[in-house]
Design goal:
- The chain has helices spanning about 10-20, 35-45, 60-70, 90-95, 105-120, 125-130, 180-185, 230-240, and strands spanning about 1-5, 25-35, 50-55, 75-80, 100, 135-140, 145-150, 155-160, 165, 170-175, 190-195, 200, 205-210, 215-220, 220-225.
- It is an alpha/beta fold.
- The chain is elongated, with a radius of gyration of 20 Å.
- This is LytTR family DNA-binding domain-containing protein.
C-alpha cells in the first residue's frame, strides 16, 4: 500500500483527487495539505511514499516544495498536478515521475500510480538513475581536428541531407549519421523529434509554445518549429514527463 500526500491550496481539488486515489487498491493512507509550508510540517513528522503537488500555490509553490523535499532523507516520489502544461519542463528537471493536467481523469491517474509503483520498486528516482549512467561520447570533426564531446552536451540536432549537425553551447559539428538513426538511438536519452529537420534534447529546452498557430520550442536561444504532425507526440511526452533522460 502506497502512502501519499496531496498538496493543493484549493480544497475541492484535494477532495476530488483524494476520492480518485481512494478508488485505487494500491493506495493506502492519503494525507492532505493546503499549502507548501503545511506539507513540509506534515512530512517532517510522517514521511510518505509519493506526493501529488499543485504547482500554483501561494507562498511555497509546488516547485519550491519539490526542491525542499530533495533535501529530505526520505524523499517521496513526485507527481505534479496543474492546469498549466507549460510547467512540464521544470517538472522534468525536478525528477517528477508524472505531470497531470487538471481536471484529472481516473484512467490517467491510474497510470500515474503505476509509475509511482515502478519508481518505488527501483528504489530511486529517475534522476538518481540518470546521474549513475555514463554519458555517451561522440567523435566529431571541426576544422580538421577530431575531438570527443558528450552526448549530454548536445542541445539539438539539425538534419542536413544524409548528415546531422549537432549543436552544443560552444559550436556545431557535422556527423555522418542520418537524423533517423540518431532519433532511434537517442530516444531513451531524452531526445525528441519535433520537426523533420530537428531533434531536441528535452533537458535543454527552456521554453515551449504549443498552443499557438506556430508551435515552437526554444533550445539554447534558438527557437525551433514544431510540426503539426509531431505536436501530439511532443505534448504526450511533456505530459507524461517520463523523466528518464540519460546523458
Amino acid at each position: 500500500m502506497i502512502s501519499v500526500l496531496i498538496a493543493d491550496d484549493e480544497q475541492p481539488a484535494i477532495d476530488e483527487l483524494a476520492f480518485l486515489l481512494g478508488q485505487d487498491p494500491r493506495i493506502g493512507v492519503i494525507h492532505q495539505a493546503s499549502s507548501g509550508a503545511e506539507a513540509i510540517r506534515l512530512l517532517t513528522r510522517e514521511p510518505v511514499d509519493a506526493a501529488f503537488l499543485d504547482i500554483h500555490m501561494p507562498g511555497l509553490t509546488g516547485f519550491d516544495l519539490a526542491r525542499a523535499l530533495a533535501r529530505f532523507e526520505h524523499r517521496p516520489v513526485l507527481v505534479f498536478v496543474t492546469a498549466d502544461e507549460e510547467g512540464a519542463l521544470e517538472a522534468f528537471d525536478l525528477a517528477a515521475v508524472d505531470y497531470l493536467l487538471k481536471p484529472v481523469r481516473a484512467e490517467r491517474l491510474r497510470r500515474s500510480v503505476a509509475r509511482i509503483v515502478e519508481a518505488l520498486k527501483a528504489g530511486s528516482t529517475s534522476t538518481a538513475a540518470s546521474e549513475a549512467a555514463e554519458p555517451e561520447v561522440i567523435a566529431v570533426t571541426l576544422g580538421g581536428t577530431t575531438r570527443m564531446i558528450r552526448r549530454d552536451e548536445v542541445r539539438y540536432v539539425q538534419a542536413q541531407g544524409d548528415y546531422a549537425r549537432l549543436h552544443t553551447e560552444e559550436a556545431s559539428y557535422l556527423v555522418r549519421v542520418p537524423m533517423a538513426d540518431l532519433e532511434r538511438q537517442w530516444a531513451d536519452a531524452g531526445f525528441v523529434r519535433v520537426h523533420r529537420s530537428y531533434l531536441v534534447a528535452l533537458g535543454h529546452v527552456s521554453r515551449v509554445r504549443l498552443g499557438t498557430d506556430h508551435p515552437s520550442v526554444t533550445v539554447g536561444g534558438a527557437e525551433l518549429p514544431v510540426s503539426r504532425r509531431l505536436l501530439p507526440a511532443l505534448r504526450d511526452r511533456l505530459e507524461r514527463a517520463i523523466l528518464r533522460a540519460r546523458p
